[in-house]
Amino acid sequence: MKTTSCSRPLCAALLLAFAGGARAAAPGYIGPNAGLWSAPTSWSTAAVPVIGDDVTVGNNTAAAVTSAVFNTVYGGAGMNSLVINAATASTFTVTQSGAGTAMIAQTLTLGTTTFGAVYDQTNGTASFTTANIGTSPNGQGAYLLGGSGAATFGTLNVGLSAMAVNGGNRVTQTGGTSTVNTALNIATGLTTSGA
Predict the structure, then answer these.
(1) Model-level pTM?
(2) Percentage of the chain with pLDDT > 90?
(3) CA 83 → CA 2, 72, 79, 174, 190, distances in Å?
(4) In this structure, how many other beta carbons lie within 10 angstroms of the beta carbon of residue 39?
(5) Which of these, 11, 157, 187, 191, has the minimum number of CB atoms within 10 Å of its CB?
(6) Of 132, 126, 129, the residue nearest 148 (C-alpha)
(7) CA 137 to CA 81: how far, in whole Å?
(8) Nearest Cα to 100, choosing from 37, 148, 53, 35?
(9) Facing residues of 81 across strands?
(10) Contact at 8 Å (CB) between 20 and 51?
(11) Residues with pLDDT less than 50, the chain
(12) Rounded CA separation 87/89 (Å)
């Protein structure tokens, strides 16, 4: 039987390259418009994002692609981060409307560009350790919660950007349930209302 050896740096590099869940590039949504999250062809890596990934949605798309449909179930710690932006003069929207879907990300960032980003949840569950909605300079983002959706936030930061007073940054709840476990930070110039 013939054995092959490799140097420590080479062996370490090979182990990292073939380790489960390790990726050379972060997944970015590339379309189609209103495409399914669960379709590998929707992603720049040709693979659906997995637990621990840093995911970007909206910045990698053509001008005609303005939405994606979240139809997946994440467990455990979920994705490391999810950034939703629009790369063009249109708003980019991620819709979660399927019963039994479960979005989990350590950090959600909606809107680091002036074009806008929306997470529209009407069903399933969503959980974020930290959610930043329109918190970067000139960023515009909105989280819409309705129907039977259930959203849980550790810390929720809303509108901590210069655009906050223009009404571009908001959390709107018309149904479902929402929970903020740690802190709710709302920018000066924004108002809160609720029943």
Answers:
(1) 0.83
(2) 56
(3) 49, 17, 11, 24, 23
(4) 14
(5) 191
(6) 126
(7) 19
(8) 148
(9) 54, 107
(10) no
(11) 1-21, 163-167, 195
(12) 7
pLDDT at 16: 33
Residue type, 5: S
pLDDT one-digit tens code per residue, 116-171: 899 999 999 999 999 999 877 777 889 999 999 999 999 999 886 554 444 468 89
Residues linked to residue 157 through DSSP beta bridges, in sequence order: 132, 185
Identify the H or E element spanning 11. helix 8-18
Which regions of the chain does DSSP assign to beta strands (E)? 35-36, 54-57, 67-69, 79-84, 92-96, 102-110, 117-121, 125-133, 141-145, 150-158, 170-173, 177-186
Here the tokens at position 192 are 């809160």
